[in-house]
Every structure is written in C-alpha cells, then in structure tokens.
Design goal:
The chain is α/β, with parallel strands linked by helices. The strands form three sheets. The protein has an eight-stranded mixed sheet with strand order 4-12-5-11-10-3-9-6, sandwiched between helices. It is globular, with a radius of gyration of 22 Å. 48% of the residues are buried.
C-alpha cells in the first residue's frame, strides 16, 4: 500500500475515511483465516436508503514508443513516412483539422473502439516541452504525468515532479485500502534501462511509486491472506460465505454477483495457466528470456482485469497501467500478430521497412485498451451508472511518433464520463502549443481537485466537459 500524504484537515478526512472503511468491510465476503473479498455495488447490500453517489476513479493506459501517425491521427493517412532521428524533433503539424470540437471519426488504429465510440474523446495537438540535455526516451514515461516546465526541477536531470495520479488521490483516494495502484506489463528483468524508462508514477522527484509487474503478486497484494499460498485463490477461501450471500440476494443481484465471482475465478485460472506456461518455457533452450514467449495480449488483459476488479470493488480509485517500457529492446510475443517475439522499439527505428508491422502493433495495443473500456462499460454501479461512467480512463503516450521522437502532437484518448461530466464521440483539436498539462489540470478539476494550475498548464481543455 502506498504511503499517505499529510492531510490538510485530518479530523474531517478521518471521519469520512472511517465511514468508507466501515462500508467497505460491510460489502465484503468473509472466509478461511480472516480472508475478505470486497464486493462490487449490489442493490441488496445498499439497504433501503437511496444509494450514495458512486465514487469517481482515474486511470491511465500508457503506451510506449509513440504511434505510427498515419494510422492513428485523422487526416494523416497519406502523410510521408518519417525518417528515423535519434534526437527529439518537431514535425510539421497536420493542418487539415481546424481547432475546435468535431464528431469523432475512427481511424484504422482506433477502429477497435467502435463499440464504445460514444464513450471516448480523441484529443489531438497536445504538446510537451522536451528538456534538452537528456535522452529522449528517459523523459517519455517518467515525466508524462508531471509535465513540469523544463529546468524548473533543480534536483533532477528530468522535468519530473509529483505525478497527477497522486495529486488526485489526495482528493478521491484516501478512503480506499490502496491509495493508488501502479501496474506494469513489462515482465522482463534484464534491466537494460534505468527506472526512468519504466515508470510513470512518482511520489515526487526521485521517489518512484514502483509498479507491480507479476500478475500473481498483484493478485496477492489485492487479496492477501495468510492462506493464499495454500489455497492459491481467494474464491476458495470465501466460497461458503459466497453461497450464503447468493441465497439472500434478489434475482438481479444474484446475476451480477455470479458474473463478478466468475470473472474473479477466470482471473485465477488465467494466472495458473500463464504460470504453468512460464514454467515450461524455462525448461526450453531459447534465444530470448522465457518472458518473451508469453502471449502478450493475454498478459496485458490479465493485468487489466486485475486493475478493473480493484477499481470496481473500491480497493483503489486511482490506477496507472503501463503497457510496456520505453526503449527496452527485449522482445515480446504479440501472439495474434507474429509467430516469433518482436521488439517494438527496434521496429520503430525503421518505419519504412516495418510500417505494416508497426501499424499492427498500434492496433493491438488499442484492442487491449478497448477490451478494458468495454469491460468497464458493462459493470453496473449505483443509480444505473456504469464503472466507465464514473471513471476517466486515458490512453496515451509520451511520444507523438516513435521514429521522430517528437514531444508534439501526442496521441491522447479519454474514455469514460467522470460522473456524467464528460461526453464522448468527440474529436477535440486544440490550438498549436497547448501543453499536455492543460488536460491533466482539466481531469484533476473534474474529479474534485481544486488546483489553480498544474505544472506548465495555461488553462483547461475546452470541449471535454459536458455543456
């Protein structure tokens, strides 16, 4: 569990947090050895009173190495394939989309979002300022959620400050067992790069919020009990209490509970399957580490399922989800794309040769994001709202393009409603030079953080809030 920050009004926060904790325990199944499984919202457990407003959540889906612009951005399908450059540069901007709010048109890379098109907003034209003198990839992930102005952080070679997730957790995360949750889908341990290439969440300059990378360790962190090793899964520990609860629920709640319990069972089965697969791979002589041969999509979706369960049950309200590290050349097995492990970073250095493969990787990542968005949209909460209705879930990358290493025109998609404050099916084109921090400021305020500004922000993003 992450450390808490000093509260501005401890007594008021303690009262509220205590009430939330009591409610959290009331909505839990009990089992062997004191095991407790937090439950999602069920009408039968809410009592006769009008359900309280559903809590708001914040989550980020970070994609490394940028995207192939001609597949992702509207109006760039015929753009020239860029030459690789090892240093950061700004490419010519697309002039085909006027500044303002437009209906959303799904490009080939965004096509997996078709089922939830009405719940997503594409934001184009957002910039970050690169701090000269350091590696282009080092600032991509580490500074993505802090966006500090260059050379304002004196004790770091990067413009890295306390990240947005922790600032928002000050407002919405203090009543949950896990104030924030940091997840990474980098299963490798060869450590080619420093922590700055492989983390997006920071308590402050030089103080990383370390990501959990092993699905089993994530599972144990969320559902830790003394008997976890012996029983292997939390559903076995609380099975008797679950049977008793089912008998006391109405028909609609029984269906909802069964779906939740079955989804957790599926997570446990998938954990066992991937662990068994990894064990078998260690016995085989391979050119790459065994982790390189684990099916990439299954691994990402499993980690994503764990994140969704944590958000759904109130274990946390703030999560960061890093799909992969910046500039690690260790390959991954994109199981639906290639028959051998491939390095995303190495391919990005030659778009001319690997254009179609890179476009497929971009779409693959979008499919995983769409899977989680659809999953959230199917989870009902109080007053008929869904988990997605009560979440801001942002897809993005710290680079606009993996070949040019540009910090301009970043790929950003915001899914979810923030409690009805955000409407989807929009494409928001911002003015040239608009800092990414403007989006982070907007999101923080939507979730109740009364920030006068954030990092190098100049104001909110127009067109995102419902009007």
């Amino acid at each position: 569990m992450t450390p808490r920050t000093q509260m501005t009004n401890p007594s008021a926060h303690d009262v509220t947090a205590g009430a939330h904790r009591r409610e959290f325990l009331r909505r839990s199944l009990r089992g062997v050895g004191g095991a407790a499984l937090a439950l999602p919202w069920l009408e039968g457990l809410a009592g006769a009173a009008e359900p309280a407003p559903a809590p708001q959540r914040l989550a980020f889906f970070y994609v490394p190495i940028g995207v192939v612009r001609r597949g992702f951005f509207p109006g760039e399908a015929g753009a020239k394939i860029p030459e690789f450059t090892s240093s950061q540069q700004e490419i010519q901007r697309s002039k085909q989309i006027p500044v303002g709010t437009h209906p959303l048109t799904l490009t080939p890379t965004m096509q997996p979002l078709a089922k939830v098109k009405d719940r997503v907003t594409l934001i184009t034209g957002m910039d970050r300022t690169f701090q000269q003198g350091t590696d282009v990839h080092a600032q991509c992930a580490s500074c993505y959620l802090s966006s500090a102005a260059p050379f304002t952080i004196k004790q770091s070679a990067w413009p890295l400050d306390r990240t947005l997730d922790h600032l928002v957790a000050d407002v919405i995360g203090n009543a949950t067992p896990f104030r924030t949750l940091e997840l990474s889908c980098n299963s490798h341990t060869d450590n080619k790069e420093s922590i700055y290439f492989d983390n997006i969440s920071w308590y402050g300059t030089g103080h990383v919020a370390p990501s959990l990378r092993d699905p089993r360790l994530v599972y144990r962190r969320l559902f830790s009990t003394r008997e976890a090793d012996a029983y292997r899964d939390i559903t076995s520990l609380v099975l008797e209490d679950a049977r008793d609860l089912r008998r006391r629920l109405g028909a609609a709640d029984r269906q909802k509970f069964a779906e939740f319990f079955d989804s957790l069972r599926t997570i446990e089965q998938q954990l066992d399957r991937l662990e068994q697969m990894k064990g078998e791979l260690t016995k085989v002589q391979l050119d790459e580490p065994p982790e390189a041969h684990l099916p990439r999509g299954e691994y990402i979706r499993l980690m994503g399922d764990l994140m969704v369960v944590a958000l759904q049950t109130g274990l946390t309200r703030v999560a960061t989800f890093m799909v992969g590290p910046e500039r690690w050349d260790t390959p991954f097995l994109y199981e639906s794309l290639f028959d051998k492990p491939r390095s995303h970073h190495q391919m990005s250095h030659n778009q001319g040769k690997f254009l179609e493969d890179l476009l497929r990787v971009d779409r693959f990542h979008m499919e995983q994001f769409a899977y989680l968005v659809e999953k959230m949209s199917g989870i009902e909460e109080a007053n008929g709202a869904t988990l997605l209705d009560n979440t801001l879930f942002t897809y993005g990358s710290g680079l606009g393009d993996g070949a040019t290493h540009q910090y301009t025109e970043l790929p950003i998609i915001v899914a979810g409603g923030a409690g009805g404050q955000v409407k989807g099916d929009r494409h928001v084109q911002v003015a040239e030079g608009t800092p990414l921090a403007n989006l982070w400021l907007t999101q923080a305020r939507l979730l109740g953080a009364k920030l006068p500004r954030f990092a190098d922000s100049t104001g909110e993003i127009g067109g995102l809030r419902e009007v």
